[in-house]
Amino acid sequence: MSESNIAGEMIEKKEFLKFFSFYISAKEFFGLQQGAVLVDCCSGSSFLGLYWLDRNPDDKVTAIDKTLTEKHRETLDYFVSSNPKIRNRYEFLQQDITQPDFEFPECNAVIAVHACGSLTDIIIDKCMKQGLPLAVMPCCYNSKRIWWQKYSPCIEFEGDLGRYADELRLAYLKHRYKNAKIETISPEITPMNRILLAGKKK
Ligand SMILES: C[S@@+](CC[C@H](N)C(=O)[O-])C[C@H]1O[C@@H](n2cnc3c(N)ncnc32)[C@H](O)[C@@H]1O
Prior knowledge:
Number of helices: 6
Bound molecules: S-adenosylmethionine
Distance between the termini: 39 Å
Strand content: 15-25%
CATH superfamily: Vaccinia Virus protein VP39
Strand order of the largest sheet: 3-2-1-4-5-7-6
CATH architecture: 3-Layer(aba) Sandwich
Helix content: 25-40%
CATH topology: Rossmann fold
């Protein structure tokens, strides 16, 4: 399946570029071997997970979202119709990740694009607890995790809540992970363009 086909047929170009840029960052950062198992958390249409499978024929993806939408069915049908083997390497779990007993299924890494507000923080906490590498692009910022400032009191709030929240998240991740960083994609693709990346736990 060529990238231009996906961009033209399934989703609009900017949306495609968002997933594509995220995919390139996460893929390079994790450096996973073939046969890896990924969780696409807060998956929405599941485009990210299905695109990952299309490009990595030995990997498996579990998509998790609290809602199963028609868009998800359409996206799955689209990918499966051009690459039927994807069907056996993909599963969808309808789950609410905010439930206290929620745990990620066994996997090599968790990926999430535009995990709104505190969902990003929940993903970070659960991954930390389970020792899982993560790549998360946050969105819809709020100030609920301002207490994270204790991990880096020198980070100043300069008016951009999103940047501040992500710097605090990064400081928190660095406290527990050997390698953690923020990468950005072009703001022309999306203004919520930071990707939090964390690899092996300390
Ligand atoms: C902004 S959308 C992003 C969807 C997709 N990753 C994308 O980039 O197009 C956020 C997603 O989080 C899901 N979500 C919201 N609350 C959730 C929860 N408590 N547990 C699991 N998923 C949740 C929503 O259903 C929605 O699909």
